[in-house]
Amino acid sequence: MKFTLLTLISFLYYSNLHAQNTTHNAILIKPKMVTLSAGIEGNIIQFSKVTVGNIGYSTIPRYTYFFNSGIDINFKIRKQLTLFTGFQLKNIGIITKYNDSLKTKERVYTIGAPAGIKLFSRDKKIMFKTGADIGLAFNYKWKRYEFNKKVAKGNEFFSNKSNLMLASVFAGFEYAGLSLTANYYLTNFYNATITTKEGQIFTIGIGVHLDSDWVKIQQSKSKAKNTVAYLK
Q1: 159 vs 136: CA distance, rounded Å
Q2: 38/89 Cα distance (integer angstroms)
Q3: Which among 70, 75, 80 has a CA at the least distance from the CA of 32?
Q4: What is the DSSP string of 71-101?
Q5: What is the C-alpha separation between 59 and 61, in angstroms, rounded?
Q6: Neighbouring residues of 108: CB distance < 8 A, sequence distance ≥ 6
Q7: pTM
Q8: Which residue has the higher pLDDT, 32 or 35?
Q9: Which tens digit of pLDDT belongs to each residue from 212-228?
Q10: How far apart are the C-alpha atoms of 33 and 77, rounded to whole Å?
Q11: Residue 181 in contact with residue 131, Cβ under 8 Å?
Q12: Could you tell me whether strands 126-146 and 81-97 are parallel, antiparallel, or unpaired per DSSP bridges?
């Protein structure tokens, strides 16, 4: 009888202590308000428009897959609303065909900082984003072709041939980790102080967006499926 009573008292004491620890831990554990997510926008299709005065020239769509990536710093405002900034590396440029014999290829590497908002579905599978960014063109490269033969080229850091700062607005969405983003560049690609040439760029980027919350949800679903399969 004494042993049973002591056992019952010990059990009640342990249960109460465990409940207090659980409550204490729950208070200490707070949801993360600032998170990081990686955006690998590896495939960018670029369309452009080039004019000199009132004369427009033909351009060729440009595709890049190298040096396009970034990291978002997310500030959670509500469960389905997030503000974000971060940094991005991009390879953007213009291919201009002046006539049947002359063609030029120009590109810049930019490092930029976006600012925008993200809206998530409840299950985190779908995300819409919009905002603006500005990129610093730190490397400019050009090639000149005559009758499809390369005759000249150049590579400059912080060149005065291109605009140093390129601003754009963007909108996009993500589904299950795959992203599609469109950017419209508001800034002339060329430096207006040394040329009358104007170049406008519009891009469509296809890539992968790795968000920690979405990854955790997918891992939990995978564990649940494995548990059900094991029980069966």
Answers
A1: 11
A2: 12
A3: 75
A4: EEEEEEEETTEEEEEEEEEEEEEEEEE-SSS
A5: 7
A6: 91, 92, 93, 137, 138, 139, 140, 141, 162, 166, 189
A7: 0.77
A8: 35
A9: 555 555 556 566 566 55
A10: 8
A11: no
A12: unpaired
DSSP string, 126-181: EEEEEEEEEEEEEEEEEEEEETTEEEEEEEEES-SSB-SEEEEEEEEEEETTEEEE
What pLDDT is stored for residue 59 in this prediction? 97
Our CA angle for 179, 184, 71, nearest 5°, is: 45
- Measured CA to CA, the distance from residue 196 to residue 177 in angstroms comes to 42
For residue 31, give both structure tokens.
Answer: 């949801």
**What's the pLDDT score for residue 124?**
83
Angle at alpha carbon of residue 115, lines to 113 and 121, rounded to 5°: 130
Site of tokens 């953007």 = 92
Q: CA dist 85 to 8, 88, 131, 136, 225, Å?
A: 56, 10, 10, 15, 35
